[in-house]
């Protein structure tokens, strides 16, 4: 199993967390399910639509970064991953 770390603005995280809670699941599980659906798309037209939705999502997330500002080790040392 792989670990994916994504930096999100607080408001986006809180809205997503609430939505997952309202659906009776966790944000982690919702993310795994979304990525599974995204990666299983075989139809090119559906794949293009999924890519467009993903790009729109990333555009709406101000401050989205693909690389973390600090390392996993630094997070652990701060107690964030304990």
What's the helix count? Answer: 4
Largest sheet data: none
Instruction: Give the helices and strands as they follow along the chain.
Output: HHHH
Question: Uncertain spans, ≥5 residues at pLDDT below 50?
Answer: none
Whole-number tally of structural domains: 1
Determine the fraction of residues in helical runs and give it as a percent range: 55-70%
Average pLDDT rating: 77
**Category from helices, strands and their pairing:** mainly alpha
Strand segment tally = 0
Give the radius of gyration.
Answer: 15 Å
Tell me the fraction of residues in β-strands, as a range: under 5%
Distance between the termini: 19 Å
* Shape field: globular
Task: Describe the structure in your own words.
With 82 residues, this protein is mainly α. It has one domain. Helix content is 62%, strand content 0%. It has four helices and no strands. The longest helix has 17 residues. The mean pLDDT is 77.
Features of this protein?
single chain; mainly alpha; 82 residues
